[in-house]
Amino acid sequence: METAANDYDLGALELQALRFSDNDMLLALTVSGKTPWVWGAMRHAWSLGAPVAVLTQHADSEAAQLADIIVAPQTGPEAVAGFGNPKAQLAQRQLLNMLTTGLAIRGGRVFSNLRVDLQAHQPALG
Length: 126
Fold this sequence. Notes:
The chain is 38% helix and 12% strand. By secondary structure, it is α/β, with parallel strands linked by helices. Helix 1 crosses helix 2 (36-48). The protein is globular. Keywords: Carbohydrate metabolism, Lyase.
């Protein structure tokens, strides 16, 4: 079954729908560095002249070759093979948390030690 992650063209189409331009910056996330949707989005951003950064586990991957900025934390092999990439996923999640926290601070969305300008939202469980 074809999934969105495997659709190269969909990456570019979704950026076009968001009116992504050369005034924007793309931060692409791909553990393997081989996700077609990510390549499509990265190539579209690159074609517009927008800066492109990638967060991946493979600094020599195809996605990394398309990026202006490469963030590639080295987490080493998984303890048990066959369960996806939990260490890599955790590393990406932690880096995104640090990045968004830093952006919130620089953007004036932190008062004392509290995040402000947030809307309360409880996602549905299940």
